[in-house]
From TrEMBL:
InterPro entries: Ion_trans_dom (IPR005821), VG_K_chnl (IPR028325), Volt_channel_dom_sf (IPR027359). The keyword Transport applies. GO terms for molecular function: voltage-gated potassium channel activity. Residues 95-327, 647-884 form the Ion transport domain. It is a multi-pass membrane protein. This is Ion transport domain-containing protein. It is found in: Membrane. It comes from Aphanomyces euteiches.
């Protein structure tokens, strides 16, 4: 049936649309409006038809199409679930799923943590936490959480649009690994039939995979604003942090090496730094001001204490650089994000209002906005902005020109007039900036390639030579004439053939290119990476040579033999004090023959470790009775038994050391051969650093040949000699790594600029530490007493048996009430003050008395506040230097030129774009005279302002030496300074030289307004140094009659009016240029063209 004309035809509306009609939804109105409009049109056509049968079939077909469109719009359940999983924060259901999964992950973490505690689930008797659940409860919790995560993974798998892409995603495999432990345990129990003892170890490793459930939080929160800011900050901080952290590692390992040699290990039970890696750990703990206190230097070792104090101060200063980068980058990223969000909300508000307006226009006029190119739109907006600002400037000029002459000459309302001139100055600058931006973007519409102008009377094969080729040929002829050989003329083509016939570069030149300019060739990059890898490997091997895990210890070991040999050569020259260094004839008799410290093959009675000699199992006496210094001989780490190394590399280090020495020697020889100037190469610091790094190898080899022994590269710092300290030079290879980082100059630049400013703060920091140490000592030193002697204190004896039993009679000790004093001298109290000021706090030294703790609180606060000054200085200076480095890099990459807009090719673009012809380009160039016009207008308005007794002073200083009231005149002339440079700043950059008093000269070039157009050029310089006027000159300049001022005012106003007229002409010409740019598709025109073509056919 067809509805009557008076009935209202029901309009199609989906159920989902009717439910959410009150709530706006982005993009939901388009399909519904189209369907409703289409249905209204179809029903209206049906109502006008007389034949009902075909129309009913058409209506049924149309209703089927509507149902298909509705199903496509709503989608199936897979599409809806996929939408919720992909963007969970967009809907309420998605938010419920998102936060529910986060809560599940957090709740899953607590059973994982509680399961590691000593409870009933771990077995055994007397658990420390008997109230914890059993293993069955933990297993049930694991099944519950695994089921939730497996269900989530199953939904993602079923609703995935592309299965191959789904299985390639990283988050998919994170989810799979998160649920794998339970399935692995079930597989071992039910399928393989393994019992609990057999699968216990495997389950321990499988449970580690549950940590991937926590990693899910990172990609679940990727849409949160804070995570986006953190990600952006991390990406921006990565380049500077890569430099600072690398050199931080170098700094730490250099100090660790120095600490390792400064604190040798003579006592295996109290050895703070067993190897360089251990010392590096201590240095990093100190630099980061953590200070666990598990490793401490011996406070009686002055060198070690001074090194640790240097690490505290220098490390804290160095760490300020990466911290400043991270803090500033994070703050700037948050600021940019907030600005972006604010502008985005404003743009959404404007876009909604614009869409409503466009929707209305599209229903009425059919504006083809989609056909407009975005560049055209941007240029059109800039042109409108320039026109608007130019008209506003003209209005302001007209208002300034309307000031009555009497007010100008008498100085009435001179403040308002001066402020109006300053506003004109600022508005004029805005107009120039807008115009320059407009002309810069208009370059995109210039032709991609102009047709070459073919000279008349010449063919393509006989074109004239360019100026460059002519000059090159002239220089070549002159050179050949001076040499007196060969033809005097050789064209460019001949020289090109000679260059092709030239033999290839020599081997030396190719080597120089590979070694010194590695980035220019593939071979150079390979060599560069090879050198980098060898440097890193050699440094790691050097550190590994100090580790006890790769050394064999014991009384009969090679390292123990070398240690006792070094002791005997230094201290064991007397058989009465050190009988262990001599040969024992029997269990009670020792001879005056020194021990022989040969290799392991020495088995005679005079060798170390044989017979009754020291090192053998039949040694008759205790070690403490064999040596005068048992603290340095009896507890050596290398002589202790029951040490099992991971691998005995004591004598095997010669293989990698020989490889590294050969490689770096070859590299040094090749660089010496390939360098252009060998004298400068030999004088450079880097060359001698490379030489010093390979010297230890050759010295050890020569010493072993001289002594008749095998080379030994295992490092032990005990009994230091020149031969044992020389391997420290291998650390110089670390400095070669700085050549692989271009930004390393930022650190040196920061150090050069900041060291003078740091001298005073560091000096007073040193004074503060010494002063605080003195106060700590006075408060915490206790009472001086003598062991086993009564010591009265406040009427009672504080010398107890427990305190004195470990000391000999009369030994001086310091007692603090009922305990021994910790801070016994100012050396230790100064150590405490340094650890407190730098916030390290090892915990070995601490105050005990209430007054000491009160003073310590003050020292903590003072140290934290005072060290903020040098830390902020270093951090700010490093950030500034790094920004300058980035700026220079960008300038070098861009050639110090502004990026030009990419030309648009109208033939290879979806939307048509107008291209300017030669006439429009010439017109656009001529319109650039607007800058000179505005400059001249401002100069004339300044001259009008100078007719007032209280003008604005632009860069003028009054000399007041001869006037007692000169300060008043100077104040009046400098009251209204412009916000930037003087008015000559309106000039384009190429004409903005040292401008000062300006003169008007005639422009001989053809311009838009003819040859009579004037332009302004500089005459004198007053920018760098303002012009100094005398008071007499000012008085003489004021002695003009009113008629002269009136004539001058009329003349200046006429010039300004003429310039304003020219501005109007320029705007009209620019409008004509813009007409060629504003091109868009018109379907109607295409249809007309098709019709014309068909009719013509």
């Amino acid at each position: 049936m067809v509805a009557p004309d008076d009935e209202v035809v029901p309009v199609y509306t989906s159920k989902r649309h009717s439910r959410r009609q009150s709530r706006p939804r982005r993009g939901s109105h388009a399909i519904t409006d189209i369907v409703n409009t289409a249905m209204e049109n179809e029903l209206a056509s049906l109502a006008q038809s007389t034949d009902m049968t075909p129309q009913i079939d058409k209506l049924a077909t149309f209703q089927a199409r509507i149902r298909e469109m509705d199903a496509a719009r709503r989608g199936g359940w897979r599409r809806r679930v996929r939408k919720v999983l992909k963007n969970p924060l967009a809907t309420r259901r998605g938010q419920f799923y998102h936060y529910g999964m986060l809560a599940t992950i957090i709740c899953n973490f607590f059973p994982m943590m509680l399961e590691t505690l000593d409870g009933p689930a771990n077995g055994g008797t007397s658990p420390a936490y008997p109230f914890l659940p059993s293993s069955t409860v933990y297993y049930a919790m694991d099944v519950f959480f695994t089921a939730i995560f497996a269900l989530d993974l199953g939904l993602k798998l079923v609703t995935a649009k592309h299965q191959r892409k789904f299985w390639r995603r990283l988050d998919t495999w994170i989810d799979v690994l998160g649920i794998l432990p339970l399935f692995g345990t079930s597989f071992m129990y039910f399928v393989l039939g393994w019992g609990q003892p057999r699968r216990k170890n495997v389950e321990g490793y499988l449970k580690l995979l549950r940590l991937f459930r926590i990693i899910r939080v990172t990609y679940m929160l990727q849409h949160v604003d804070g995570i986006k800011v953190l990600k952006t900050t991390f990406v921006e901080c990565l380049p500077p942090l890569r430099i600072t952290l690398f050199f931080l590692g170098v700094f730490v390992m250099v100090f660790a090496t120095m600490l390792f040699y400064a604190e040798p290990c003579y006592d295996a039970s109290a050895c703070p730094f067993t190897d360089i890696f251990n010392a590096g750990y201590f240095a990093m703990v100190t630099v980061t001001t953590v200070g666990y206190g598990d490793q401490l230097p011996n406070l009686d070792n002055i060198i070690a204490v001074l090194l640790c104090a240097s690490i505290m101060i220098i490390g804290a200063l160095y760490l300020a650089m990466p911290l400043a980068i991270i803090g500033l980058k994070y703050e700037l990223t948050w600021l940019r994000f907030e600005i972006k969000q604010t502008s985005k909300s404003r743009m959404l508000t404007r876009a909604r209002s614009t869409m409503r307006s466009l929707r209305h226009l599209m229903t009425t006029t059919g504006l083809p906005s989609d056909a407009i190119h975005p560049t055209v739109h941007r240029v059109y907006i800039e042109f409108l902005g320039f026109t608007k600002e130019a008209l506003q400037l003209e209005t302001m000029i007209s208002a300034y020109m309307a000031i009555p002459p009497k007010e100008i000459f008498a100085g009435v309302n001179h403040r308002d007039h001066n402020e109006a001139l300053e506003r004109l100055h600022v508005a004029c600058k805005h107009v120039i900036v807008t115009y320059q931006k407009f002309t810069h973007d208009m370059r995109a519409f210039e032709p991609v390639q102009l047709p070459p102008a073919e000279p008349r009377g010449r063919t393509q094969d006989h074109r004239p030579s360019s100026l460059t080729s002519k000059a090159s040929d002239a220089l070549f002829r002159a050179k050949r004439a001076i040499q007196g050989g060969g033809p005097a003329y050789a064209p460019s083509s001949t020289r090109q053939e000679d260059a092709e016939r030239r033999p290839p570069p020599s081997l030396r030149r190719r080597l120089r290119r590979i070694l010194e300019r590695s980035s220019e060739s593939t071979a150079g990059q390979i060599v560069h990476r090879l050198v980098f890898g060898m440097v890193v490997s050699s440094v790691l091997v050097f550190y590994a040579e100090t580790m006890p895990e790769f050394q064999a210890f014991g009384p009969a070991s090679l390292l123990c033999r070398r240690g006792i040999q070094a002791y005997c050569s230094r201290y064991g020259s007397n058989v009465g004090t050190d009988p262990g260094c001599f040969v024992w004839l029997n269990a009670t008799t020792v001879s005056s023959t020194p021990l022989s410290f040969g290799d392991d093959s020495c088995t005679s009675d005079g060798c170390f470790g044989s017979g009754y000699n020291f090192g053998s199992t039949t040694t008759p006496r205790d070690c403490s009775t064999l040596f005068s210094r048992p603290s340095k001989s009896c507890k050596l780490r290398q002589c202790q038994p029951d040490h099992v190394p991971i691998a005995d590399m004591t004598t095997a280090w010669i293989v990698p050391e020989t490889l590294f020495a050969a490689f770096f020697t070859l590299e040094l020889a090749l660089r010496l051969y390939a360098t252009k100037r060998r004298s400068l190469f030999l004088q450079s610091t880097g060359t001698w650093l490379n030489v010093g790094a390979i010297v230890p190898y050759y010295v050890e080899v020569l010493a072993s040949i001289t002594d008749g022994r095998d080379p030994l590269f295992a490092i032990l710092p005990t009994f230091p000699t020149l031969l044992t300290i020389l391997p420290v030079l291998k650390m110089l290879r670390v400095l070669k790594l700085g050549q692989h980082f271009k930004a390393s100059v930022v650190l040196s630049r920061t150090a050069i600029l900041a060291y003078r400013r740091l001298l005073i703060p560091l000096f007073f920091l040193f004074l503060g530490c010494v002063s605080a140490g003195a106060i700590f000592f006075e408060i915490e030193r206790g009472t001086q007493c003598r062991a086993h002697v009564p010591c009265p204190w406040w009427g009672r004896d504080i010398m107890t048996v427990d305190l004195s039993k470990s000391f000999p009679w009369g030994k001086r000790i310091q007692v603090q009430v009922d305990k021994l004093t910790i801070i016994t001298d100012m050396w230790r109290s100064t150590w405490l003050s340094i650890a407190t000021f730098t916030t390290v706090g090892y915990g070995d030294m601490k105050p005990r008395t209430p007054f000491g703790r009160l003073f310590d609180i003050c020292a903590m606060i003072f140290g934290s506040c005072y060290t903020a000054m040098p830390l902020s200085l270093i951090g700010g200076q490093f950030y500034s230097c790094y920004e300058q480095f980035l700026k220079k890099q960008k300038q070098s990459q861009s050639g110090r030129e502004a990026p030009q807009p990419k030309p648009i090719d109208p033939l290879h673009h979806k939307r048509p774009v107008g291209v300017l012809d030669l006439e429009a380009i010439d017109m656009l160039k001529k319109c650039s005279v607007v800058v000179l016009l505005l400059d001249e207008m401002m100069q004339n308005m300044v001259k009008i302002n100078q007719l007032s007794p209280h003008p604005v002073a632009f860069g003028t200083i009054v000399r007041t030496s001869q006037s007692p009231h000169g300060h008043k005149l100077e104040h009046q002339l400098s009251m209204y300074q412009p916000p930037s440079r003087d008015l000559a700043s309106h000039r384009p950059p190429e004409r903005n030289t040292e401008t000062g008093v300006l003169r008007r000269v005639s422009n001989s070039s053809n311009s838009l307004f003819g040859k009579s157009q004037h332009r302004v050029e500089p005459r004198e310089s007053v920018v760098s140094r303002p012009r100094v006027l005398d008071v007499k000159e000012l008085k003489e300049s004021d002695e003009h009659t009113d008629d002269d001022k009136m004539q001058r005012l009329t003349h200046l106003r006429g010039l300004i009016q003429t310039a304003s007229t020219h501005m109007t002409t320029i705007l009209l010409q620019l409008t004509r240029v813009m007409e060629q740019v504003m091109v868009y598709d018109d379907p109607g025109d295409d249809d007309d063209l098709d019709d014309n073509d068909s009719n013509g056919g």
